[in-house]
Amino acid sequence: MVRLGAVAVVVMLLLRAKSVEQTTNAVRMLGRLAIDDTQSKQITQQGSIPYLVALLKTGTGDQKCWAAFTLRKVTACEANRDEIVREGAIPPLVALLRGLNEELNTSVVRALGNLTTTDAHRAELSREGAIPPLVELLRKGSDELKKHTLRALGNLATDDAYRAQMAQEKAIPALISLLRTGGEAHKPNAARTPELWKYRLFIDCKVLDENNQLLQS
């Protein structure tokens, strides 16, 4: 109950912030309060999402990082996702994927991964151009970032059109490389990385049959 009261206070601080420092402190506190579904739903119900989306677009570097972190936490609660998408979170999240900040990219990818669980949200991600930068992160990101990118792409790969787009973006060579030489986090162990099995089925059964020999070698 105390934490729920704290959420209301911090959201009010965010909405009434008059300086860069006040805004940064408020969004940081908000992210740290999003520790479970109850807290996350309260953050959404208190009307914070439009302000978080605005910070993704026009905030300072720190504010963008904390806004993305907070959205990553609150999108983990399924009940929040439709509201977050309605408030326009997907376009600025996708726009931030091309940045060079590892911490920001990780929060963004994890938030987008949480939004890949329904057809409507996957369709918006595709329309907003999420697949090309995700594939790029699969090639060039850190091991931690690749792990979360695999989850997002793995969920998108449930649709034929998105699989075809991934193939056009040359995702298959990157996936084959991970299957062959990736670290333990990327090995095709169903208990740890089921996303790779989705992709293996995608490669084996749906696209570019000539790559089967590479997977078997």
From TrEMBL:
| Keyword vocabulary terms for this entry | Signal
Q: Where are the ARM repeats?
A: 47-89, 88-130, 129-171
User: Record's superkingdom?
Assistant: Eukaryota
Tell whether Nucleotidyltransferase is among the UniProt keywords: no
A matching Pfam family: Arm
* SMART domains reported for this sequence: ARM
Q: Which residues form a coiled coil?
A: none
Q: Using the record, list the residue span of the signal peptide; answer none if the entry has no such feature.
A: 1-22
Q: What is this protein called?
A: Armadillo repeat-containing domain-containing protein
